Structures
1.
Amino acid sequence: MATEELALLGTMAGRFLDRHATAADVERWRINGSVDRDLWNKAGEAGLLGISVPEEYGGGGGDFRHEIVLMEQLGLRGVQGFALPLHNAVVAPYLVSYGLEAQKRKWLPKVVTGETVLAVAMSEPAAGSDLAGMRTTARRDSDHYVINGQKTFITNGLHATLVIVAAKTGQEGGAKGISLFVVETEEVVGFDRGRLLHKLGQEGRDTTELFFHDMRVPAENLLGGVEGRGFQQLMEKLPQERMVIAWQSMAAIERALGTTIDYVKERKAFSKRIIDFQNTQFKLAECKTQATIAKVFLHYCTERLLQRSLDNATASMAKYWLSEICCQIVDECLQLHGGYGYMLEYPIAQMFKDTRVNRIYGGTNEIMKLLIARSL
């Protein structure tokens, strides 16, 4: 997968993060509950936003391989608070794939510059992985839709200025009648952001609740222009979202192993380095083997994604397996740090908190197993 272009992107992204996402910056974001708003503009100026958006809309014209490079650079530096992958590789593809031409020309250029920050609103207090159980409704009223409801666990919820909202437009039960609306948060009345949610990890991500009270959205903001296609659109894009989580897990694994190997080579116990104990060598050998197998599988899945042949079950395997292995390896690495592994000043302790959610968001791993089982 390595090419000169991808290597240059990695170098550029790494330099950007080293300058604008230092350890002090990341700590400040954790305390504040969000990254600085102008970081999005700086990322846009550096060419890191919309890298897989077609060039005709101002984007980089790349593909998922370019998004992987960014995820690796973010993960290796522990910059999980900057939800750039969600903006680039999860939400923007909805606009690219389903937006009408006028919609794409209106919204995508600002997505690339950072003037617009993206979010997607699917989860509700009573409907997480069960998208068909959502209660948010959208009723047609002349040339507008009136939307009422509530969403929760929304990443980029504080800064987002363009939110793709899933809502029921029909009376049919289950998944039927769901539509996606592009809500320009600064242009509508009846839109409210809730509090920043206090999370176990990834504290720097601005995760909030969103409320819609008779929110009037222009009918032209119905994504794709046809009602009732929302569930299909979500199902078609969820495999890539799950690959995003899998690759983020992979980056965390590599960071955990790297920092732990450095630690055990320096730390001593009973007058010998921790790395010189057979138990340490065996534990790290197991972790290295698991990481290698995981990455080979990820490359296989990525190739299928690029060929548009990645099915839902296989994407679910990637998300489930990588997130589980990630948590296991981070836990083993924390144990090798001894008491220091429990101290938040050490990166491994923060990784332990940050990676736990990988088994939950994007569809819980229990849901992943159900999806896999359906392919049996």
Note: The two ends are 31 Å apart (CA to CA).
2.
Amino acid sequence: MTESTSALQEQVAALGPFFTFETHAAGAELSVPWRKLSEVARMESGVMEERVASVRAALAAGGGRPAEAVELRVAASVAHLGLVARVVSPLLGLAALHRLPSAPPTLDDLRWHSGLGGAFALSLPRETIAAVATDHVVATDDAGAVAGAGAAGALLEGPVRDLVDAVAAFSVSRHILWGNVASAVHGAVAGIVSAAPALARPARTAALLMLRHPRLRDAHTLDPRNGRFRRRSCCLIYRAAPDAAGAVCGDCVLVRR
């Protein structure tokens, strides 16, 4: 890894645990404990089913109940939100410091090893980081906006949509799942702004490129006067509490204003 690539990795990691990542050479053989993230999107692998079951058990344990007391779709939605947040956060961190990768990594490119209760270990192709570190700024604002929108679209239509498709199989509404994506984008930017206020403008610019994409345009509202974000769906986590009477998230459509 070149010095500039290594420095960029360290700068992104400084934004918080969901931004931290390792790197590997594209196409290199897997080494224990690393696995391809694409396995979670293949139903025949059973990995997503296993992860949803683990999240279900953890949610139920929080209320002192058996796993079966939590609806499967609730656990699937919560698992999905965590997976998406982990994928988009380091890429938005790169965007805040430099720009979104013009060719974002696919789920097959990304590597992970599983864990609950926080950010699981994630590894990005070294070539992706090197390309971001060495790309030249596009000459004009209009051209830059087009390039940025294209990169945002490639991320949403690639690994993010693959995760949406995988979790939709658990009877979770796609409206909820794309709401999860919008919430993950907004949450990542909030994390960046909190950790590095000087990066607020580029982070918000990158987020807007994603939030204005057709996949997310109808999944949220964003008040231009104060920047207040609100999703147009609920991740369902409140239903994991006894009697489905848990607290809702701050950006939830169910929050009374």
Note: Strands lie at 22-24, 35-36, 111-113, 121-125, 220-222, 229-231.
3.
Amino acid sequence: MTRRVLVTGGSGSLGRRVVLRAAEAGWEAVGTYLVRETDTASVRLDIREPADVRRVLEQTRPDAIIHTASGRDRNDWPATADGAAHVSVAAAAHDIRLVHVSSDAIFSGRDADYDESALPDPVYPYGAAKAAAETAITAIHPAAAIVRTSLILGGGVPGNGGGAHETLTHDLIAGRVRGALFTDEIRKPVHADDLADALLELAGTDYTGVLNVAGADALSRYDLGVLVAHRDGLDHTAIPATTIAALGLNRPPVLRLTTDRAKQLLNTRLRGATEFLTP
């Protein structure tokens, strides 16, 4: 019998990849959207409304939920924090497997390297909302899996599966936006397909608690932009560069999620950006 997974945020860049890769992993996927129905999201869901979450779960009756949805902007606490709690309450009430997508944004960067035991110490609102979501889920649905991840890159150029960092790189090179990529902000970017496969794999297990799922390479946002430019045949020398320090920003400089546990637990191989961005 085919298992059914509900993918919140199925119209988003990550949720879309989860829905598209679900059949290969043995799942029937149902994706949700808030604003506009897409080919991967057919059920409207407002995670800010507990009654709406209950309605969708009763309508779709999933065996598992992969919660990729969050706020429409990075300061949307009602969706990012409260929404995760609402999904958790409904999942726990129906004893539904829950896999929640969190972020390395919950950390300040003070320690640089973070394993699954690291406690959140966010320094800006999005990280605080994601940390609050983790706290709520741990209390409400302790059997859930909480996946901390990093920068997510898509499977193609902007408009064809590319991630936000790829889009920004293209826009900066073309002069469509002002700004720069930081040379001192280090992350471990993950391919959207690798992350999607890991989430689906976890949905079929009974793993509980936090798991770091990130790419193998620690790179600056600028170096990542250079890789994107090389892959897409763009002039990398046109990418503006700066540092967090030079601008005096309160942003975590170095966040490296350790992935030893994921490597032992998962069959999914988490590639590094230098591998998946090389033509």
Note: The mean pLDDT is 94.
